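step=encode ok
step=design start
structure_in=
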């Protein structure tokens, strides 16, 4: 059997982080088995579906590098096929026309609610003669669901789940205007696309028992199901925007790398021993449905930050420069030329050790390429006034004739100057850091001086230092 999975989002908004995890699990399972990963856009809700949302979903999947096989399928464009199946079920006696008006159905639900009964369709047109149909009423087509026995689902995550068929009513397959419902469309599409494994959130578990009735009515083989627990916030509450229920594009804008987000989403509900850092290659090799837990996972930004920091340290320097240059340009309002890009690439080994996100990385790298004079933080400005300015002026005079311009030689010279003046190293190094970076925090300052070069280093000192 060739494994076929699918990701089937509704284009009513951004690609939610929970949806991204579902896509990842489907992608990994297909890749692990050498199978096929399909993308279906479930756009039957025409009032809420938008092209912008479709593009956001596609962009999110591309950024996460979860490539799908073949073209994305529009569910709405297959509505004729869905209606065809509904009529086939009616011809076979597994569906029927229901002429109950909206007012009748509302009254029925009100009575059930008042009696403390579950609100479900009572089957009033199930066995009624269509000749009794009222004039001028367009009927819906309903599934004639089994009323006795039970439906048993062997779920790869939830285990064996049973539902009494009496709890399942005769759901609508085609609306009065002839358009198919979501429940029908999903089943027909999964069957026609040869989907072998349906991996989705456990909020669909109830839907699955209803959809199984359609498979059986049509005599189709059931796919295998795996219903994944939902993601909760760190406090255990249902995931909301304050927890991280954002679109994938928001994580990209916050400066996370796609490989870090993939690793983090993988660990939200799936495990392989005690491994926390799992490369995509390892994930493809190891992923199976048995590793998915039954309990909701908890979203934790601190863990995501730590993972992202790890992947940033592993990332190619030139790639990181390409990712942060737009951020630097947006902040400075000036283009970063090729010479500045080269400087950032040489500085990257020191910069990327300390940043957790690309935004932090861009902020920490900005001083390397900003036009002089540097804008100082308040704390940095305090370090280069009075005694600090005098120290820098004297240090500049010592460095001016200096020939060996590498970090070790610069450090040795600064240490010798501090010793001669009876100063602790910090009394010299901290004003130097402020002059060269505009901040009290930077990579090792002697490495910074080496990277900036002698001319730029002395020019930055001269911008703020006044000789005695």
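sequence_out=
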């Amino acid at each position: 059997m060739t494994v076929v999975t699918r990701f089937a989002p509704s284009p009513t908004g951004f690609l939610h982080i929970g949806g991204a995890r579902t896509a990842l699990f489907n992608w990994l399972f297909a890749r692990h088995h050498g199978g096929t990963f399909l993308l279906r856009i479930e756009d039957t809700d025409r009032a809420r579906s938008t092209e912008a949302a479709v593009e956001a979903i596609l962009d999110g999947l591309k950024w996460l590098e979860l490539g799908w096989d073949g073209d994305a399928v529009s569910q709405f464009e297959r509505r004729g096929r869905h209606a065809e199946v509904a009529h086939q079920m009616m011809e076979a006696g597994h569906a029927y026309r229901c002429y109950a008006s909206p007012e009748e159905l509302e009254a029925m639900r009100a009575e059930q609610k008042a009696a403390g009964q579950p609100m479900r369709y009572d089957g009033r047109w199930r066995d009624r003669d269509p000749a009794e149909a009222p004039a001028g009423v367009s009927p819906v087509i309903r599934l004639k669901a089994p009323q006795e026995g039970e439906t048993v689902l062997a779920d790869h995550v939830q285990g064996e789940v049973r539902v009494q068929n009496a709890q399942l009513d005769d759901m609508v397959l085609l609306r009065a205007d002839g358009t198919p419902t979501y429940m029908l469309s999903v089943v027909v599409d999964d069957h026609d696309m040869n989907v072998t494994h349906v991996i989705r959130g456990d909020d669909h578990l109830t839907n699955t028992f209803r959809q199984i009735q359609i498979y059986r009515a049509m005599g189709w083989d059931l796919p295998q199901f795996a219903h994944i627990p939902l993601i909760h916030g760190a406090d255990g509450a249902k995931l909301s925007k304050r927890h991280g229920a954002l679109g994938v594009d928001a994580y990209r804008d916050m400066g996370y790398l796609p490989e870090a987000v993939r690793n983090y989403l993988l660990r939200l509900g799936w495990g392989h021993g005690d491994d926390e850092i799992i490369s995509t290659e390892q994930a493809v090799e190891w992923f199976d449905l048995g590793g998915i837990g039954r309990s909701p996972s908890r979203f934790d930004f601190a863990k995501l930050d730590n993972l992202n920091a790890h992947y940033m340290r592993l990332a190619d320097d030139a790639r990181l420069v390409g990712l942060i240059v737009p951020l630097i340009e947006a902040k400075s309002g000036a283009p970063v030329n090729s010479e500045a890009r080269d400087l950032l690439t040489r500085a990257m080994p020191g910069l990327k050790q300390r940043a957790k996100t690309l935004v932090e990385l861009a902020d920490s790298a900005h001083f390397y390429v900003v036009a002089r004079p540097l804008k100082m933080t308040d704390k940095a400005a305090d370090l280069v006034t009075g005694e600090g300015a005098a120290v820098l002026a004297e240090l500049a005079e010592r460095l001016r004739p200096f020939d060996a311009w590498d970090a070790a030689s610069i450090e040795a010279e600064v240490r010798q100057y501090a010793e001669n003046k009876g100063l602790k190293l910090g009394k010299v190094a901290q004003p130097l850091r402020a002059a060269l970076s505009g901040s009290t925090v930077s990579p090792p300052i002697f490495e910074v001086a080496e990277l900036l070069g002698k001319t730029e280093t002395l020019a930055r000192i001269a911008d703020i230092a006044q000789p005695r």
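step=design ok
step=annotate ok -> The chain has a mean pLDDT of 92.
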